[in-house]
Amino acid sequence: MLQNYRSSTSRKEILKILKDSSNANTSILWQAFPDHRTIYEINEIETDFPNGVIKVSLNQTEEPINESVPAYIKLSHRETIFKGKVLSYSGESITMSIPDEIKTTELREYPRFNFISDAEKYVVVGVVTDFMRNATQSLKVKLFDISTNGFGAVISEGNKKFFYQGAYVYLEMMDSLKVDPKRLGEVVYLETMTFRNAGKQQKGFKVGIKLIQPLTNNFLSFYVEGVEPANSKTPGVENLKRIVFDDELSKQIEEVISKTVSRLKHNLSFKKVLQSIHISRDPERYYLEHVEALSRVVCSLAKLLNWVSDVTLEKLVYVCYIHDIAFVNHPHLAKIKSMEDFKEIEKDLPHEEREIFMRAPQISLEFWQADKFGPADCDKILIQQMERPDKTGFPKGVGSSKISPLAALFIVSHDFVDYVYENDDWSLPLYIEECRGRLQGGYFSKIIESLKIIQFKI
Asked: If DSSP codes are grouped into helix, strand and coil, which group holds residue 193?
């Protein structure tokens, strides 16, 4: 009933995929170096079959291609990835040999389970409709295949309008198994197909959906094999759902996250960030899990303080997504919590990473300033995110009296999430006692006091 896909070395399949990818769309090329990764947007791909080469036209590049380093290409068609030697480079285009091996989303290291056509496997998908503002319509569709990072489903002609490329959807149910929390996904392709239903051949459409918020391996194993899942999130993080004691607020947070991700997708720089994250699973898992936990905590505390509004929630979630943007290619730097921690390891870090860490608030601020889709008035939160009430933070070393209310809220929320990551059996009363000496004065004292209220709500 089930099978795992593997890499393909079929010359016929490789040539077909290259032919279907002549329209580069959102394809990218990158080169990996010991201390960084350089990503380039692809304008056009031309395959010279007789000579066995690929000619890739690039957008204007700030950093030239290094001809001695292999190049990787990720095609938007089936999210195909392959590696090749750079044969020549002209400044605007490169020539590579046609690869001997390719990997697609379903053929890469994520196990993908394929169900036989007569298997009664279904998922419930929430589709976002233009005519239903801030609402979704749930559709039950036949499941074709699934992995932790996405799934394929068969849809009818009538539902085709909801699954255009780039549309956002929620995975809500897998047969009778509830997906909690719902997983946000994006439609990456839609193609016609023939399938069997009740023993009869039928025509329909196969839709491919990439999960922006992936499933865990244990949860997927439980679905396909009936193995009881263990908690696969970072120990302690799963219990953060208890912090949101208001179901309406929880739903509102999910909607704001969906809206924020949708807006950020229009930002070319952030698009490159997401593509870069997707190349490696571990940074992706930490980044997305960290953002989800931080969004939940900061929005919940804002509600307790009566600082909440649609505008405020959008601002806070947006900041959660971009505050660590400087660390995407250096995820270990995101785990340095203070100047004191930084000083302890500073001598062991390369000069470039020391500069990145110290400029991180400014880098996130500059990203926001260049983002025409970003919410207003995020500047103080971003530039003050690493400040501390006792003046031990940076970049300016200001104290509690000069840290803005929402920046203080973000600092406390981030500190609490860090505490949860470090303590499997975290306790809110113990955290309040521990942080009282560090986070006090100005708005910090009021925010810490609000944490006491949560103790009676859990």
From this structure: strand
